[in-house]
UniProtKB/TrEMBL annotation:
The keyword Membrane does not apply. It comes from the Bacteria. InterPro entries: cNMP-bd_dom, cNMP-bd_dom_sf, RmlC-like_jellyroll. This is Crp/Fnr family transcriptional regulator. CDD domains: CAP_ED. The lineage of its organism: Bacteria, Bacillati, Bacillota, Bacilli, Bacillales.
C-alpha cells in the first residue's frame, strides 16, 4: 500500500526508490471506517493525512445548520488543515471518511522533529504544499469565474470518479449549486443515472 506514497514522493524528490522505501518504512498507516470523523469543526488540528485508499470530505456547518462541502480528498492526496494564522488555532472545518479509508497519519506537533531527523522531507513537503496551493488557487479562480455547467464539466475532466463516488447533495454543495440543479445539469450532459443519497 505504501507504493502509492512512494510513487507520489518521486514527483518531488530525486531519491532512489530504495531510499524512499527506507524513508517511509516507519511511516504510520491506519485504517478508518466509513463515517469516522478525523477532525471536528472547532477542534485544534493535530494530525495530517495522506490518502492511500478511500475518500475524505472537508465540510463545515454554519450557525443556521447549513452544511457546505469544500473538498474531497482521494488517493494520492494530502489532507491538512492549515490554520496557524487564526488566533485560537481552531479548525473551521470537519474532516470525515466517506468510505473505508487507509491513511498515512502524521503528527503536526512533531513535524519539526521529523524534518530534523530527515532533512530531505522538509524540501519535499514544501514542494508538495506549493503544488497543492497552486492547484487550489487555480481551482478557486476557475470556480468563481465559471457557470454551474462549466464547473460540472471541469469536474468531469479533472475528477470524474467523484461523480458516482459521493452523495449527490454533497457533490452539489461542492459545486455551489442545489441537488436539483445538479440533476438538471446531469440530464443535459446525458447522464440520467444519479447516485442515491446515503
Amino acid at each position: 500500500m505504501k507504493d502509492v506514497l512512494i510513487q507520489y514522493m518521486k514527483r518531488f524528490s530525486n531519491l532512489s526508490e530504495e531510499e524512499l522505501r527506507k524513508l517511509t518504512e516507519n511511516v504510520p498507516v491506519a485504517d478508518f471506517k466509513k463515517g469516522t470523523i478525523l477532525l471536528q469543526q472547532g477542534e485544534i488540528p493535530d494530525k495530517c493525512y495522506f490518502v492511500l485508499k478511500g475518500c475524505v470530505r472537508q465540510y463545515a456547518v454554519a450557525a443556521d445548520g447549513k452544511e457546505t462541502t469544500f473538498n474531497f480528498f482521494t488517493e494520492e492526496q494530502s489532507v491538512t488543515i492549515f490554520n496557524q494564522h487564526s488566533i485560537d488555532k481552531a479548525s473551521n472545518y470537519s474532516l470525515s471518511c466517506l468510505e473505508d479509508c487507509t491513511l498515512i497519519t502524521g503528527d503536526l506537533f512533531t513535524e519539526q522533529e521529523m524534518y530534523d531527523l530527515h532533512p530531505v522531507l522538509q524540501t519535499m513537503t514544501r514542494k508538495m504544499i506549493e503544488e497543492d496551493i497552486g492547484v487550489m488557487r487555480d481551482d478557486f479562480a476557475s470556480f468563481v469565474a465559471s457557470s454551474p455547467e462549466e464547473r460540472y464539466k471541469a469536474l468531469q475532466e479533472k475528477r470524474p470518479d467523484l461523480i458516482n463516488r459521493v452523495p449527490q447533495y454533497q457533490l452539489a454543495s461542492y459545486l455551489g449549486i442545489t441537488p436539483e440543479s445538479l440533476s438538471r445539469i446531469k440530464k443535459r450532459f446525458g447522464e440520467s443515472h444519479l447516485r442515491v443519497v446515503d
